[in-house]
Amino acid sequence: MRGEECEYYNAWLNAAQPDVVFEATSLDVESGQPAIDHIRAALERGAHAITANKGPVVHAYDELRELAALRGKQFLFESTVMDGIPIFSLFRNTLPAIEVKGFKGILNSTTNVVLTGMERGLSFDESLSHAQQLGIAETDASHDIDGWDAAAKVAALVNVIMDVRLPPQKVEREGIRKLTGEAVRSARNAGAPYKLICRAQRTESGVTASVRPEQIPLTDPMALVSGTSSIIQFETDIFPGLTITEENPGLYATAYGMLADFIRAAGS
User: Fold this and answer.
1) pLDDT at residue 127 tops 80
2) CA atoms lying within 13 Å on the CB side of residue 222
3) Which of 125, 87, 116, 99 minimizes the C-alpha distance to 253?
4) In this predicted model, what pLDDT tens digit does every residue of 148-200 receive, in sequence order?
């Protein structure tokens, strides 16, 4: 946040003196701005900060968490992964002292919709165009197609749930752009459909993480996740396999995640 935008935003904060600020700007995967500055300014002025933007979580989590604690406020971001399904709060509030050893999942709905369309006979471009017409994919869907959105979600989960600092640029990343309709249909017919799989695993030296198309056998529940649905499976020291599935969320799912965070903040 720079120049006139910074002055305008700070002037608004000073005049409004909000109790809660909702931050929902678009993701800048390289820097996390201007969302980081928005949240920092809100916390400094004594407001709870709620965001649906992954940037602050992957680029400034420690700073913003410590600032929120110093001000006695909440920095919450449930809508950043799986639309507001309680993933972060699950480990924060419900499963204390659990160690997450790793996870894998399907976390980007745009690529899942595109792959589903290709399985049904569309070309890559036709399936992407269809996803854009449905309002699922952005006009410029490169962040989704090339795996950046999924990499940012992986980084957010690693930073918060595994407590290891990992920027999106350190996630091994391959999108679905090179997959053809023929290859996708052949994989489905062979009983091992392509999915854009997100993975992270704790190692002795830290965490390894990746986003890439993988062929998943139909015996794996992830092979059955289609359309806008998503799924994540956690490996923990207590529960070897803890799975959360979200089936075809509606347009209000992300907004609900922010509402849930608002209720948490109001009750704190």
Assistant:
1) yes
2) 25
3) 87
4) 999 999 999 999 999 999 999 999 999 999 999 999 999 999 999 999 999 99
Q: How many CB atoms within 10 Å of residue 142?
A: 12
- Beta-carbon contacts of 73 under 8 Å, excluding residues fewer than 6 positions away, are 43, 46, 47, 48, 49, 265
* 7-16, 31-40, 66-75, 146-155: range with lowest mean pLDDT: 7-16
* Nearest Cα to Cα of residue 245 among 219, 218, 224: 224
Other C-beta atoms closer than 10 Å to the C-beta of 32 total: 24
Which 8-state DSSP code applies to residue 232? Answer: E
Q: Which of 82, 85, 43, 79 is nearest to 60 (CA)?
A: 43
Residue-wise over 36-50: b if at least 16 C-beta within 10 A, else e? Answer: bbbbbbbbebebbbb
Q: Once rounded to an integer, what is the mean pLDDT over residues 118-141?
A: 91
Which two tokens mark 165?
């600092």
Q: Judge whether 146 and 177 are in contact, CB under 8 Å.
A: yes
Distances (CA, A) of 57 to 50, 157, 244, 252: 11, 9, 21, 22
Banded pLDDT at 51 (limits 50, 70, 90): very high
Strand partners, 245: 231
- Write out the catalytic residue numbers: 153
Is pTM beyond 0.90? Reply is yes
Entry field: residues in the chain? 268
Contact 82, 156 (CB under 8 A): no
What residues contact residue 72 under an 8 Å CB cut-off, 6+ apart?
A: none
Nearest-angstrom CA–CA distance, 65 and 63: 6
CA–CA separation, 196 and 38 (whole Å)? 32
- What is the SS3 assignment for 160? helix
